[in-house]
Amino acid sequence: MHPTRLFHLLACLSALVVAAWGAAPAKAELPAGNITLIVPLSAGGPTDGLARIVADKLGPMLQRTVVVENRGGAGGNIGGAAVARAEPNGLTLLFTIDSLLTINPHLYPSQGFDADKDLTPVSIVGQFTLMMCVNAKVPAKTWGELVAYSKTKSVNFGSAGFGTPPHLALEYLKSVSKLDAAHVSFRGAAPALTELLAGNVEGSFLVAGAVIEHVKNGSLRALAVSSPERLPIMPDVPTASEVGIPGFEARFTNMLMVPSATPVSVQQRLSKAVAEIVRQPEVRERFAALATDPVGSTPQEAAARVAQERARWGKVIKDADIKLPR
Question: Could you name the CATH architecture of 3-128+252-319?
């Protein structure tokens, strides 16, 4: 089954499974104390913004104070390792892009934890799309013009870091097209966007919600989105297939994860809480502004998504011979 169709099927099934949770215990015991929600990426980026939306709602729901803590570095591995080693009692959570478990295991000889054993995703919080943008001063106004331009001039694509979704999206794009572009790694999504706006790199894949205003004000030019459908919030931007890159798709998810030894009852409580949060109209509106589709899945659906995407990106990494820089 095509990954997109499978994901939509999982999203539909999640509503039915969430309804069935009514037969589960109403509460799972959490020890006293604040909840630390670790974001393994820099502050100010799209994932950090989504984490804070969820944290604002999760605290009152669990009757706890939720403190968001950014621990960036090593493609998310530093923050991931901190949660993997934490007491598995539901008081230390991880809000991360799924690439931590789907891409990083293929690139890093050691993540500081075992991606198969030490972390468990309890919910797919949302799915986001990347937007391929160029600085407005780049003469290419279409995908075809960018490819032609890359044959005559040096074209650099910035990313939030080596091995991050924007980097892998670029490498995947290069493997299925004739684009000639070099990768430039920055320390996070915010610096990558700053450098693109300054014209220090010609292009980038960026989380769509982070660049909409810059596209609207003319600072950036959007050439395509990485999803198979156009985004309702930016309906004039074509899909990759529409501009002549059939089959190209690069969508990622934000997930809530816990140490794997966390009691199943606590995992289910957290998963149910996320499902309730993303059903709230206010939250859905804020997610939409960030071009993120709210999901709210079960732990089983989240695990299935990780397995599916790890296999897919593993093939991309192998075929493109992507290796960590020495």
Answer: 3-Layer(aba) Sandwich (3.40)
